[in-house]
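Two proteins were folded this term; both appear here.
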Amino acid sequence: MQKNNNFLTILNNLPEIIILVVKNDTIIDSFGQIKEKFNNSKLYEHFSKVTYNKLLLLKSKNIDNLTIYWNSKDYEVSYFDDTYYFKDVTKYRNLYLELKKSLRDLRSKKEELHAVFDLAGNGISILNEEGTFLYANKFFQTMMEYSMEELYNESCISLSSPEYAQPSKSAVQRAIEEGIVERFRKICVTKSGKKINASMSLSYIKSTNEIVMITSDITSDVKYQEDLKRRINKEVQRRTKQYEIMCHQSRLASMGEMIESIAHQWRQPLNSLGVIVQGLKHLNNSENFDFDLLNEMETEMIEKINYMSETIDDFSNFFKISKEKKNFNILNSVKDTIKLIDVQLKNENIKINVNIEEGVNLELYSLENEFRQALLNIIQNALDILILRKQLNSFINIDIIQNGNFTELNISDNGGGICMKNIEQIFRPYVTTKKQGNGIGLYMSKVIIEHNMKGNLTVQNNQMGAVFTISLKSKDEN
C-alpha cells in the first residue's frame, strides 16, 4: 500500500507532465501538476471541440503526433493503452518560435546581402578552399559570361589564362595561410574566350573555411596606362630630339662666338707677323745683312705662331664633347674659360675679377667641359650687355664662396640688370633681349647646371646689374 502511495506521489509531481486515463470518453484517473482532478468527468468537457476531435484522431491512430494549446500552454500529446500523455512544451515552443523568427530574419538579411552584392560595381564571389565557386554576384556572372549554375563547375583557377593558372592557385593558398591577398593581378578568360585584365583581392573566412574574392575589371585602366606610356615615350623622344637640336644650335652659336674670339686673339699676332715679314723684306735689301736681327725676328715669329696654335688648342678642347664625370678644380676651369675671351674683354676695356672666399672647396666631381660651356654663356651674356649699353668702368665679378655642402659662383656685372618682366623668362628657350641673340645660351646653361650636373642656376638683380648664381655640390674631401 505504501508503495502505491509513493508511486502516485511521483506521478502527481512529474514536472511538465499530465496523464489522463480515459475509458469510454470518461476520465477515470488523472496525474501530474494540475489544479483539479478530472476524475469521472467527460474528456470533451475540458477541451475545445477542435482539440477534442484531434485527441480522438490521435486515439484512433489517424494522426501520429499532436501539439495542442490548452490552459494557456502548449502540450505535445501522445496516446497509449487508454492513456493520454500531455508534455508541456511551452518553453520549447517559444524557443522554436524565436528560432523560426531568427531564421526568417537571417533569410531576409541574406536576401538583402545578395541584393547589395548584385548592385555592387565589382565582381564578388565566394570560393571553397579549392578555389571553386560557391556563389557569384550578377556583376561577376556578367563580366565572365557564366551563369551561376555554370560557375558551380568552375574555379578562379580554371577561369585564368594558362600562364596565370599556377599563380592563381598560389594566391588561393596564400589567402588561406595569411588571411588576405590584396590586388593580385592576372588575365582572366571569359566564356566566349575574351581576355580581360583583372585585379583580385581575397579574404579567408576561417569559421566557414571559405574565401571571399572581389574582382575588378581593369582592362581599360591597363589599356590607358599602356597608351599613356606610349605617349610619354613619344613625348620624351620628341623632347630629346628637340634638346639635341638645341644643343647643336647652342654649340653652333658658341662656335660662332668662339670664331669671333679667335679672330680677336689672332688679330694682334697676325699684325705683328705682317710687320715682321715686311721687316724681312727690308733686311734682305740692305747691304749689311744683320743675322742677329734675323734670329730675333725668327724667335718672335715662333712665339706668335705658338700663341696662335695654343689658342686653337684651347678652343678645340673647349668644344670636345664629353659626358664622362671627372675630378676638376673649379678655379682652373674659371681661368680657362676667361682665357677664351680675354682679348675681347681687354679690347672693350671690361675688367673681370675672380674673388675666392677663404676655405672654399674648389674640387668638384662632375662634367668639366659642360661647366665651362655654361659659365662661358653667362660671361658672354654679361659681355654683350656691357658692350650694348656702353657702360663706363665696366666690370664682371666672379665670386666663389662656400654655402654648406655646395660651392657657389656668383657672376655679377654693372650692366644695369635684367628688366623685371623678362627676368622670369630669361632661362626659357628662344627668349632673348638682344637683337642678334638666339635665346639658347642661358637656357642651355640652365639645362647643363640643373639637369646634367644636378646643381642649381638662378638669377636676380642687385643695385648695379644682374647676378647669376651657380650652385654645385662640393666634392667630399674624405
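Next, the second protein.
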Amino acid sequence: MCGPEYVRTENPCSDLVKSQGNGKGDTFVALLIIMVNMRDNESPYEAQMEEPLGRVSILSYGSGHMLNDITSSCWFTYLLVFLTDVGLSPGDAAVVMLSGQLADGFTTIFAGELMDRFGHFKLWHAGGSILVAISFSSVFGSCVPCKLMGTNSSTLETVGYSTFAAIFNVGWAVTQVAHMSMVNCMTSNPSSRVSLVSCRNAFTMVANLSLYGIALLMFTLLQSVSVLVQYRWIAYVSISLGSCFVVIFLVGTKEPGSIQHSTDKNLSRISWAYWFKRVLYYQVALVYTLTRLVTNVSQAFLAFYVIYDLEMPQSSKALETRWSSWRLKLYFSAGAVLWILSGLGIVLLPSRLHNVMYAISIIIGAANALMTVTSISMEGVLVGEDLNGCAFVYGSLSFVDKVSCGIALYILESYQGTIRSNLVTAFGYSVTRFGLGFVPAACSLLSAIVAYTMDLPDTRRRPLVEPLLA
C-alpha cells in the first residue's frame, strides 16, 4: 500500500496522499500538506509552553529570589565593613569572603547537575532557602567557635566566620540555580522569558532598597549599642522579610513539568561536552561573569568609598546603588556605557563634592539593572529549547562568576592593608577608589565588546506554515 506511488504524512491518522506522477507541483503540494499536519500534531504541552505567562505567574516567580537578593546585598555591601569593625584584618576579612564565594561556585556545578537529573526545582529552592535563613544570622553574628573554645584568636575568628560563610553560600547557590533554571522550563515564549528575568531583577532592586532602608533604620535607632548588635538585627529583619517572599513563591508558582516532558523517549540528556563545544557558551559566560564583577565589586567597595574616600557620615553606608537579540545587545551596551561614565566620575570625584555621589549612585543603579537583566536573558537565549541541560548552564556560569568575584575581592581587599593606609596608593588613588571606579568600568567596556561580537540566535518565533497555502 505504501509503495513509490504514495507519500505518507507525519500524522499517523491522516489519509495517504497519492502522487499523480513525479511532477514538481504535486510533490510540493504533498510536502505542504505534510508540514501542515506536523503543525496540527503539536502536543498540547508544546502549545501551552508557547503561550505568554500571566502577571500573577510572573510576579510570584520574581518574588522567589527575594531572600537570596536581600542577603546577597547585605553580604557584598556590609560583610567586609562588619568584619573589619569587629577586629579582623583586611586580609582575614578577604579570606572569609573568598571562602564563601568558592563554596558558592563549586556548589552551583553539583547542584546544576543534580537538578538536570532529577528536576523538582521548587524542592531544591525550598531546601536552599531554609539553609540560607538558618546560617545567615551567624555570618553577621558573634564567633561561635570562639565562644566554644573560650578564646578570641584571629585565626579561630577567621575559621569560624569562614565556616558559616561557606554554609550560607551553599544554600544560596542551590536556591539561585533552581530559580534561574525555572525560566526556560516555565515557558518557551521569548517575551515571557524576558519578563520573568525583568521581574526577578525588579525584586532584586526592591531587596536592595529594603536592605538599605533596614540598615538606615538600625544604624539610627541602635546607635547606643555595639556594631555586632546592629548588624545582627539587620540580618534578622532581612531574613524575616525575605522568607515571606519565599512562601509567596512556593505557593504561587507551579512546579515546571518540562523536565519530565523534555526527557522524552526520543531525547537524552545533553552532555557537558555539547556546551563546551559552542562558542556562544564562552561568550555568554564572559559577559555574565564581567557583569557580576561590575555589580559585586562596586557593591562591596561602595561603603568603604563613601566613608573613607569621600568622608561622608556613617549613615551613608545605606546609600543605594542600583525581544530580540539585537535589542539585548543594545540595552546591555547602554548599561555598560553608563557604568563607564560612572566609573570615571568615581575616580575623579573630590571629597568636597561628595554629595554628587547620590546622583552617580542612581546612574549606577540603572546601569546594573540594564546589564543584569540582559546578561541573564542572554543565558536564556543560549539554553533555548535545550532544557535537558539548562541547570548545568546556569550552574557552570555561576561557578565562573562566583570564583572570579571571590578572587577579585580577595585581591582588592588584601591590598588595602589598613583602612587609613589605603588612602595613598599608586597614581594617587586609593585601592577603594580604584576598585569601585576603574575595575567595574573596565569590565563593562570588555563585556560590551564581547556582547557586540555575539551571534545570538533570533528569539522570534518561527513563521507558521499555513500562510504558504494561501
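The chain is about 70% helix and 0% strand. Residues 1-22, 258-267, 418-424, 460-470 have pLDDT under 50 and may be disordered. These notes refer to the second protein only.
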